[in-house]
Amino acid sequence: MKKAISQLLGGNMLSKVLGLIREVLMAKFFGTGDINGAYRIAQTGTLVPINFMTSDSLNSAFIPLYKKYLTENEFRASTFKLCMFMFFAVISLLLFFVLFFLSDYWVGIMAPGINGNAREMTNELFKIMAICCPFYLCSGLINYISMAHGDYKPMSMRASIQNVGMLLGVVAAYYYNNYLLLAWGFTGSYIVFSFWAVIRAKKGNILNLPERFEMAEVKQVMHSFWITLRPLLLLPLILQGNITLERALASLLSIDVVSGLDYARFITDTVTFILSVPIAFAGLPVWSSQSPEVVREKVTTIYNWLALLSMNMSFFIFVYARDIVVLLFMRGQFNEHSVTVTTDIIQGMCIGLWAQVIGYIFIKALSAHLNNKQVLIVMIVALLSNALVNLATYKIWGAFGLGIGNSIYGLVMFVCSAWYLKIAKDLIPAALKIVPGLMIYTLLLLALGNVITEPGNVMVRLLVNGTLFVMFSLLWAMLFPMYREGIKGIFIKKGLR
């Protein structure tokens, strides 16, 4: 599992570096104006129906079942694999035709607040991005098959290859003054990735199909898959519906909020991808073969350390959100208004960011034992809470309200999934150790804010504040034996090396 986490973490880090370069250039060249807004809407509109098929619900149902077949009956596993490829091929072609020929109708649903030039640009970008549907879905299925066979490389490289393509698209669109190249960068990346994934999978002999076709076997595997997936089928519908609603509300506020939402999400998603995604995806195949008691013990141990990291990171990003946005994005077309909008969204998201990071792992722990009805209940309650808060606050708090809705989603997911895992009481001690430290640091900031003059340069200011906060967090954690022994162990190992 450690190897898998390292592989996924390495891929995520590379992806985020490339993504950061892409977002910085996107902000400089296009700001938060019509081109950027149209591009974000078209991309989201393409990914919403695609992600319905490649969502966490599907991999949570597919991977444990496929892995079970691999250990019990190899013919059944290969039959299941063939059925899924046929299913994905039909769905991907259907999605392409719907998105390509009904793009204008879909734009009206995704972004009712835009019109004129922005709507026309979105429609054109949509048609190009629709081409990626078969390639995206095919490579997604290969990713899941590879992970079931213990190969996490395709999963770790997917986002990096996507970001390379999108980065090239951003540069080409600006250099040639042709915004359509933004869409071709996205589509081209998945064409390249799908071919690479197929070649790698064939070399690993994991795409072997059954030598014969037995209808009875097909019925059995698809029936089992349907029984496993059925409780989760509503989940991707609500999830993608929530994303559509969020994007639509952002467009009603302004085109700047549409773009600001993605800049903010890039920063908060980076925390999730670095801290929780590697653990969750590496743990899913391992936890499925362990008893619930062992899984609960392991997840609680992970929580104790992840809470320390995620709560502190969420707090730091909330307090210094404006400086982070200015440092990363404020250049070229990204003006003061863009900074304000993006900062508001980030601060709203950071209130529950830590809970989303941890809750994501809890959900995967539930899925590992096929507790899909419980996962469905948790996610539905969390997503509906998100949607209701967004609808209630977007007119009052604007961009900040959209961020708050995202936090509510994380908090509800965290609490409900912990309750179903029967570890809720075990989570309280770690929180009681961490939160007082953050409260004391806040009081210190308030007390010394008018006394200490901070550096004028934003990079220096963030470095100074970041160093002070890390030192304070480490010293505070060292007050407690649980963290003190672990931190000392890390430094001892480093010293031995």
From TrEMBL:
Where does the record locate the signal sequence feature?
A: none
| Entries under InterPro entries matching the protein | Lipid_II_flippase_MurJ/MviN, MurJ
Q: List, in alphabetical order, the Gene Ontology terms for molecular function in this entry.
A: lipid-linked peptidoglycan transporter activity
A GO term from the CC aspect: plasma membrane
Q: What is its main location?
A: membrane
Keywords from the UniProt entry: Cell membrane, Cell shape, Membrane, Peptidoglycan synthesis, Transmembrane, Transmembrane helix
Q: Where in the cell is it found?
A: Cell membrane
| Ion transport listed as a keyword | no
* A Pfam family it matches: MurJ
Which GO annotations describe the biological process of this protein?
A: lipid translocation; peptidoglycan biosynthetic process; regulation of cell shape
Domain of life, per UniProt, equals Bacteria
The answer to keyword Metal-binding applying to this record is: no
How is the protein disposed in the membrane? Multi-pass membrane protein
Q: Where are the transmembrane segments?
A: 82-102, 125-145, 157-175, 181-199, 220-243, 263-284, 305-330, 345-363, 375-394, 400-421, 430-452, 458-480
Primary role: Involved in peptidoglycan biosynthesis. Transports lipid-linked peptidoglycan precursors from the inner to the outer leaflet of the cytoplasmic membrane.
In which family does this protein belong, per the annotation? Belongs to the MurJ/MviN family.
Q: Which PANTHER family match?
A: LIPID II FLIPPASE MURJ
What is the official name of this protein in its record?
A: Lipid II flippase MurJ
User: Which organism does this sequence originate in?
Assistant: Enterobacter soli
